[in-house]
């Protein structure tokens, strides 16, 4: 298949994202105010707690079996590598640009966490719908497209709310020298006070305690204490978000044969549950994209964020990481870690390196009330540039795999 034909196949999903995102941005304007701050908050909660979990659970339950589950094991590893490589490149960028301390967590978050939920859910099924797609029959391709994208969404959510959330929390605490910041949990009116000075002091004192008790405390006890310290920094409530729980439910339904026969199929006794979840899930993608457009509106107001840092983040997410992604997937294919015949799965793995920053990074900055304006500007420009780079990288990925 020619490069131009592949470019058109890759362009169509990106154009769909642009159109729906543009609608979300327009209806969020003050003059129209159909998706203002309050409406956006409520719609985001509906997507987070209802629509997105329904989409993930139904798509995984319908198409995942025990055999296919075994073949998907590399996706969590691949996603973890995107976070690790992004963090390393972010650390280099921080050293080069001398980013202020209170914004270093934002830079790491934007470089490490990609939008591996919304965009794959839109783009991958849309690519399959094109008659000239390189992945075979559109119906068969679409059958696997949503499960792959749903798995990417759920695993990405776990990594974001454990790895990225923990790093940004640490940097937010270090960035507040004398004051305190607040953390607001979605769906709750309660605010949790975070005292950076106390946390930092206690962390600094722990090595001294270990040194003093070196001769008395066994190695196993030391390891257990360190594990407790690390686990205390991880918010399990956010880590296991509704989408992650829905993915577990979907896997159980799909893999356990008796449950699958009860719920999946035209003759299943409880098929109405799966059908209802499927209907709800269909609304998730357009609602996600509308909210994404509304979130980008704040970036138009500008901030004091350094242009060098913004350009550096764009380079990391839109140039360096996709190149690494090609190398990782080619290596995985060479060592038979992924099936050589499943080109759609390999395309998804490559795409996970090429997406712009996750919108959840902006949500995390709202929790800590730190760097919100700067994050909005970063999101705006990375997504503007991604409209071109994502098309080009998708074309190149398909050309390599085809």
UniProtKB/TrEMBL annotation:
Membrane-spanning ranges: 6-29, 73-94, 106-127, 147-166, 239-259, 279-297, 309-332, 344-368, 380-401
One Pfam family hit: Mem_trans
Family: Belongs to the auxin efflux carrier (TC 2.A.69.2) family.
Gene Ontology annotations for the cellular component aspect, listed alphabetically: endoplasmic reticulum membrane
A biological process term (GO) from this entry: endoplasmic reticulum to cytosol auxin transport
Localization per record: Endoplasmic reticulum membrane
Gene assigned in the entry: LOC111296030
UniProt-recorded name of the protein: Protein PIN-LIKES 3-like
Function field: Involved in cellular auxin homeostasis by regulating auxin metabolism. Regulates intracellular auxin accumulation at the endoplasmic reticulum and thus auxin availability for nuclear auxin signaling.
Key words of the record: Auxin signaling pathway, Endoplasmic reticulum, Membrane, Transmembrane, Transmembrane helix, Transport
Main localization, broad class: endoplasmic reticulum
Signal sequence annotation: none
Membrane topology: Multi-pass membrane protein
């Amino acid at each position: 298949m020619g490069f131009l034909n592949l470019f058109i196949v890759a362009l169509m999903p990106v154009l769909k994202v642009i159109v729906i995102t543009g609608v979300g941005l327009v209806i969020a304007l003050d003059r129209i105010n159909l998706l203002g701050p309050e409406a956006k908050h409520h719609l985001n909660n509906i997507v987070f707690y209802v629509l997105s979990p329904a989409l993930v659970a139904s798509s995984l339950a319908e198409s995942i079996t025990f055999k296919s589950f075994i073949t998907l094991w590399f996706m969590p590893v691949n996603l973890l590598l995107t976070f690790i490589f992004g963090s390393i490149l972010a650390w280099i960028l921080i050293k080069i640009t001398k980013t202020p301390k209170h914004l270093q967590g934002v830079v790491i978050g934007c470089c490490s966490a990609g939008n591996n939920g919304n965009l794959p859910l839109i783009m991958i099924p849309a690519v399959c719908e094109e008659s000239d797609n390189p992945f075979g029959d559109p119906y068969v391709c679409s059958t696997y497209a949503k499960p792959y994208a749903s798995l990417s969404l759920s695993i990405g959510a776990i990594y974001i709310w454990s790895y990225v959330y923990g790093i940004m929390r640490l940097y937010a605490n270090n960035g507040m020298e004398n004051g305190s910041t607040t953390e607001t949990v979605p769906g709750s009116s309660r605010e949790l006070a975070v005292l950076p000075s106390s946390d930092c002091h206690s962390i600094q004192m722990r090595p001294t305690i270990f040194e003093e008790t070196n001769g008395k405390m066994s190695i196993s006890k030391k390891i257990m204490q360190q594990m407790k310290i690390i686990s205390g920094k991880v918010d399990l409530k956010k880590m296991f978000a509704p989408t992650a729980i829905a993915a577990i439910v979907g896997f159980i339904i799909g893999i356990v044969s008796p449950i699958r026969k009860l719920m999946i199929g035209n003759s299943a006794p409880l098929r109405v549950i799966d059908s209802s979840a499927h209907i709800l899930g269909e609304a998730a993608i357009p609602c996600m994209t509308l909210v994404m457009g509304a979130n980008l509106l704040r970036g138009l107001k500008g901030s004091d964020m350094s242009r060098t840092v913004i350009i550096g983040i764009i380079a990391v997410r839109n140039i360096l990481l996709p190149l690494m992604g090609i190398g990782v997937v080619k290596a995985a294919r060479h060592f038979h870690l992924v099936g050589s015949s499943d080109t759609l799965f390999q395309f998804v793995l490559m795409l996970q390196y090429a997406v712009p920053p996750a919108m959840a990074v902006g949500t995390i900055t709202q929790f800590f009330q730190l760097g919100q304006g700067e994050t909005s500007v970063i999101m705006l420009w990375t997504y503007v540039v991604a409209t071109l780079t994502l098309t080009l990288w998708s074309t190149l990925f398909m050309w390599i795999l085809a």
